[in-house]
Amino acid sequence: MDPDSVAKAFVEHYYSTFDANRAGLANLYQEGSMLTFEGQKIMGSQNIVAKLTSLPFQQCKHHITTVDCQPSGPAGGMLVFVSGNLQLAGEQHALKFSQMFHLMPTPQGSFYVFNDIFRLNYA
Amino acid sequence: MLTFEGQKIMGSQNIVAKLTSLPFQQCQHQITTVDCQPSGPAGGMLVFVSGNLQLAGEQHALKFSQLFHLMPTPQGSFYVFNDIFRLNYA
């Protein structure tokens, strides 16, 4: 599978899991994974999922506008840079966001999220 | 590697050729946020930036996001290994 297809497949899987059941994101992160969410730094799969499941909304939908990816170096990692809109249930206007993922390969031939940085793009 | 608004460019010479050929004479970047994380065992660093880009003569600034992946040099400095740039349209 070429890198762009891998990135696209990962993004679709990540956001559909996020939108349906945030707790299901736990197996996409590992102990050493890092998330910076709107400037707040969180480390480890458990803490990351605790943060994401505690975000102050019940339902949300991500609409992805752009996905860019590049290989990140000798370790076989991949950088994925996403921008899009986040619609919260009950809110009139969608929030714009940018997010970057650094994916690292697993021994089983899959990927997990090592680095994750999320920012809203305010007007 | 640079991905500039979806266009992929490789190597310092080609990257600088692209950046110097962008269709404006003068610009000013105003940075709003900078986030960083170490990127793994190779000692690299991810830097995620958002801000505004004001072009001379334009009334409204363009919003942008940019990701740099910095790798260490033997001399103790860093160079840009990965660079991804996107405008954030309204």
TrEMBL record, chain A:
Subcellular location: Cytoplasm; Nucleus; Nucleus envelope
Pfam families: NTF2
Principal subcellular localization: cytoplasm
Keyword Nucleus attributed: yes
InterPro entries: NTF2 (IPR045875), NTF2-like_dom_sf (IPR032710), NTF2_dom (IPR002075), Nuclear_transport_factor_2_euk (IPR018222)
Entry keyword set: Cytoplasm, Nucleus, Protein transport, Transport
Domain NTF2: 6-120
Keyword Transport: yes
Subunit structure: Interacts with RAN1.
This protein's name: Nuclear transport factor 2
TrEMBL record, chain B:
Domain NTF2 span(s) in chain numbering: 1-87
Localisation: Cytoplasm; Nucleus; Nucleus envelope
GO process terms (BP): mRNA transport; protein import into nucleus
Pfam families in the cross-refs: NTF2 (PF02136)
Keyword Transport annotated: yes
SUPFAM superfamilies per record: NTF2-like
GO cellular component, one term: nuclear envelope
Sorted UniProt keywords: Cytoplasm, Nucleus, Protein transport, Transport
Main location: cytoplasm
Domain of life: Eukaryota
Free-text function comment from the UniProt entry: Has a role in nuclear-cytoplasmic transport of proteins and mRNAs.
Subunit-structure text: Interacts with RAN1.
Name recorded for this polypeptide: Nuclear transport factor 2
Lineage: Eukaryota, Viridiplantae, Streptophyta, Embryophyta, Tracheophyta
